[in-house]
Specification:
The protein contains ten helices and twelve strands. The chain is α/β, with parallel strands linked by helices and 309 residues long.
């Protein structure tokens, strides 16, 4: 039987995450020697090295260490939730604790506000930690145990994940109100291919939008690209081109004098947006409560304003 403490695991996890004993010691406000002792002790227990030490180059995870660090993070996560659940009142107490959410950065401003508003009204003792990134980032956050759940598209899922759909998100065109096409009720990929395009240049997103044109034998006229939806929005408003997006931020409705939103004629099947968790894993009470609240909001139609049909 292995003999280790949560404190040792915490020291090892910080070292692996930060890539340095000195940085881990500073982050945890303890001595470097305490970190070193914890690493040596755990490595002795498990019988293999988690890290390689190179003079003047510091410390680096071994391949086995990467796998070990993932297991350590998952164990620490379960321990954290256990501590929160064991302190819950046994009968009808308010659910409390923290939930770590990995959010697709371009979509988060749209769907998070209604979720958080509803959740904080029903669970006043809950805290949320956000991890933002592109689609590949947030799946990695989930797989590495850094997030309890991830908001993402179903197309990112594998057999490691369980996916709960929230809504379909068909693509739409975002145009300046001064664009002559803005007077139309809809637009087509053929019409858009003749116009200058500002591309959302994120992993998976760019490939998806390119594929929409390629399916019709078309090629977009990309004149600018950005990883930021806000920069794209500014460029569109300034008349530099149009863009394609999926999730519709409700605050765009405030800019009716600046933007026009047009659905696409004959779009490809719409990608499905929802929540992913690790499959075949029992979720803590606080995470279950969060998931249930999201599904209740879906039933009430809270996500419909984010979709352009």
């Amino acid at each position: 039987m292995l003999n280790f403490t949560l404190k040792q695991l915490k020291y090892v996890e910080a070292t692996g995450r930060l890539g340095s004993i000195a940085k881990a010691a500073t982050d945890l406000n303890i001595s470097q020697s305490s970190i070193t002792v914890a690493i040596n002790s755990l490595e002795s227990e498990i019988g293999y090295d988690l890290f390689t030490r190179t003079p003047a180059k510091g410390i680096k995870l071994t391949p086995a260490g990467r796998d070990g660090l993932r297991i350590i993070r998952a164990f620490m996560d379960q321990s954290r939730h256990f501590a929160a659940e064991i302190q819950q009142e046994p009968l009808g107490g308010d659910v409390s604790g923290s939930v770590r959410i990995a959010c697709y950065a371009t979509a988060a401003p749209s769907f998070l506000p209604p979720i958080l508003k509803s959740l904080t009204l029903s669970h006043k003792n809950i805290s949320i930690k956000f991890l933002e990134g592109d689609m590949e980032d947030i799946i990695e956050f989930l797989d590495q145990g850094e997030a309890d759940l991830a908001f993402c598209y179903r197309e990112m899922m594998s057999d490691r994940h369980h996916f709960m759909p929230l809504f379909e998100a068909p693509p739409y065109a975002l145009l300046s109100i001064n664009n002559p096409m803005s007077n139309s009720a809809t637009t087509s990929l053929f019409e858009l291919s003749k116009e200058p395009m500002i591309m959302l240049d994120l992993p998976r997103a760019k490939d998806y939008f390119m594929s929409l044109f390629e399916q019709h034998g078309l090629k977009p006229n990309i004149v600018h690209s950005s990883r930021s939806v806000e920069i794209i929005r500014t460029l569109v408003a300034s008349g530099y081109g149009y863009s394609l997006l999926n999730i519709f931020p409700p605050d765009y409705l405030k800019d009716v004098s600046t933007f026009q939103i047009l659905p696409l004629e004959h779009p490809a099947p719409a990608p499905v947006f929802g929540i992913a968790v690790i499959a075949r894993t029992k979720q803590p009470i606080i995470v279950k409560s969060f998931l249930q609240k999201c599904l209740e909001l879906k039933q009430r139609g809270a996500f419909k304003p984010m979709v352009v049909l």
